[in-house]
Amino acid sequence: MVIIAGGLLLGLLLAIASFSRFVPSPSAPVVENSVTQLAQNLKSATQVPLALPSQVPAAQTYYSSIAEVQSDRYWVNLDVDRDCLGVANCNLGAVSGEVASLQTIDEQYGNLEGFSPPLKSTNLDQTVTLAQGIQGRFIPYVCGASCSTSKLVWGQDGYRYLVSLQARVVPDDQEVQALITMANSAIANRQP
C-alpha cells in the first residue's frame, strides 16, 4: 500500500513539475501588445533563433509572457489578461521555437486519428505555403472537455516553430489566413 501511495505521489509531483514549466515566474516580464519586445529576454537564454510575430490577430489588448525558455526551446503565451499565465479561458494562443525533433509535425502536434470531438474547427489539416516558400502544417482545434489551439507549425534550418490561436479567437473561415499572417511576420522577424 505504501509503494502504491508513494508511486501516486511521485506521479502527481512529476505532473505538477511538467505543467509548471509553462507557467511564467512572477518576475517574468509581461509585455502589452507585442511579442517582439520579449526578444532580449529570450535571446540571452536560448540558442534557438527567435521567430517572433509582429502581427497577432487580437481584437483587443493582449499580453505576452515567457512561459518557458531553455537552450533548445522557448514558449511565449499570448493572453487577454496580464495575470492569465497561459490558462485556457484567458489565453489567445502561443508562439514557440525549438530544436526540431525526430517526430513529424503531425506526430508531435496533430490531433489523434479517429478522435471524434463534440466540436471542432470547420477547417481541415492542411499544408500551406508561407513566406520564403517555406511549407507549414495547419492543425485545426478540437474540443473535448476543453479546446485545443489551432496551430501552424513549420521547420526552418533544423528548428521547428509554432504559432497558435485558441479556438474561436478568430472565426473559422479566417483562422488559416490569420495564422499564415502571424507565421509570415515571425519568419520576416527571424533572428539568426
Automatic annotation (TrEMBL):
This is Serine/threonine protein kinase. It comes from Lyngbya confervoides BDU141951.
